[in-house]
Amino acid sequence: MKHRKSSRSGKNKFNRSILRICYAAVGLFFALIIYLVWFVQFEAPNVIGSSYNPRVNLMSDRVVRGEIRSADGEVLAKTQVGEDGTETRVYPFGSLFAPVTGYVQKGRTGVESLANFYLLSSHINALQQAGNELVGVKNPGDDLVLTVDSALQKTASDALGDRRGAVIAMDYETGRILCMVSKPTFDPNTIADDWESITAEDNDKGQLLNRAAQGAYPPGSTFKLVTLLAYVRAHPDAYEEFSFDCTGVYTDSEGNEIRCYGNTAHGHQSLKQAFANSCNGAFAKLGETLPAADMNALAKELLFNESLPYRLPYVKSSFRLSEEDTAFMKGQTAIGQGRTTMSPLHNLLIASAVANGGRLMEPMLLDRIVTAGGQEIRTFREKEWGGLLKAEDAALLAEYMRAVVTDGTGSAFRDAAYETHAKTGSAEYEDGGERKTHALCISYAEYGGRRIAVSVIVEDGKSGGSTAAPVARAVMDGWLLR
Predict the structure, then answer these.
(1) Which of 215, 285, 469, 480 could bridge across to 447 with cysteines, CB 3.0–4.6 Å?
(2) CB-neighbour burial class of residue 167 (10 A; exposed 0-12, middle 13-18, buried 19+)
(3) d(CA 341, CA 311)
(4) What secondary structure, in 3-state letters, does the chain show?
């Protein structure tokens, strides 16, 4: 009997082992299926469309690259086929959309790179495809419709003018990028001919750099949103009691001087007034008192030194502060100077999250894909990245940004037909030993069912309120007052 029980027990153990193996095999099988579905849906276009993938050349041998169009129907890029079969990629707007479309010669950049797989795919009638292949005729590729608006792109470009800098705007509730301008720029029609001069060592214009996403700038006073929030969190019951007497020059605890823009003496300031008037002295004083650990934690929360939810090349924003830093470095950091850098794109995302109650939408450029015959085959969905800010923090920052317009440096928006929230900034930098100032502005508004957030930087533009804010105002008018 004991031998029989032992034998039965051994068989049960063996059967359980077999079941475990079967369950593991089935689990791996389903995991593989899930991965394949995910890969085909999300990663295949990126892998197949990569310039390192030799399959791309095979696709281009069979398909004429599709068109790229703006949200309002303008053709931004198309392929002209000559009588001898020679294909030429043409950009009807020249340099205007270069930061968006990119180019296909000398490599691929911009949307031409991001959507390479879609533009080299063809979904026309299967019989028509088969017929074309039998006679050796290429099939027309699918067309791509973007989120950018051609009229607004021109408005933003005209507002920036010949100055170096960037303008980027998006619908903060959907993440749809409405315009993206970077200057100086290039003409993708002549990129091959201009390549040597553009990439020459003595060329300091940086035409190939998309300043909107790849430009790393000191944020200046736009960073005061971060310092303000850090102080409010550290003093939730007492921040409204803060006051500061501004003489135009603040002397820190180590005897260093930090000046307000133009040495302006703001006089007696509450926290909201100091924010609205962009008082450097008040915020430098805050910076001295805030623990470096708190500032670093909040900066990380707001995606400094972190990846941004953006699929084209961009530069990570940088923030670094230590308790061992001098009082001067702490004060400089609090007013957006020091070692801090960020991109106009990142500044736009923070402003958008404030406007959207703390929720951040992923910025998107691709709207939908249509066949050469006009049939829609795919729509790109809006995606919420998550909560960048707590709702109560977003509400407080919105209140303070509104005060910038009604009582502070955002006077360029004061007579607008819509209610604007903004923060201006002036960021010092050194150019060949000479001290210069970038002008910045972030803003947002809603009017008539339309929404927009805008981020502007004008290099060597001096005052954010007098130089960058009017650019943002022109873009907001161009979108909200149609």
Answers:
(1) 480
(2) buried
(3) 20
(4) CHHHHHHHHHHHHHHHHHHHHHHHHHHHHHHHHHHHHHHHHHHHHHHHHCCCCCHHHHHHHHEECCCEECCCCCEEEEEEECCCCCEEEECCCCCCCHHHHCCCCCCCCHHHHHCHHHHCCCCCCHHHHHHHHHCCCCEECCEEEECCCHHHHHHHHHHHCCCCEEEEEECCCCCEEEEEEEECCCCHHHHHHHHHHHCCCCCCCCCCCCHHHHCCECCHHHHHHHHHHHHHHHCCCCHHHCEEEECCEEECCCCCEEECHHHCCCEEEEHHHHHHCCCHHHHHHHHHHCCHHHHHHHHHHCCCCCCCCCCCCCCCCECCCCCCCCHHHHHHHHCCCCCCEECHHHHHHHHHHHHCCCEEECCECEEEEECCCCCEEEECCCCEEEECCCHHHHHHHHHHHHHHHHHCCCHHHCCCCCCEEEEEEEEEEEECCEEEEEEEEEEEEEECCEEEEEEEEECCCCCHHHHHHHHHHHHHHHHHCC
Percent over 90 (pLDDT), the chain: 78
Question: Could you read off the pLDDT of 247-297 as tens digits, one per residue?
Answer: 999 999 999 999 998 889 999 999 999 999 999 999 999 999 999 999 999
What is the structure's pLDDT at 41? Answer: 55
Report how far residue 28's alpha carbon sits from residue 204's, in angstroms, rounded to the nearest whole number: 54
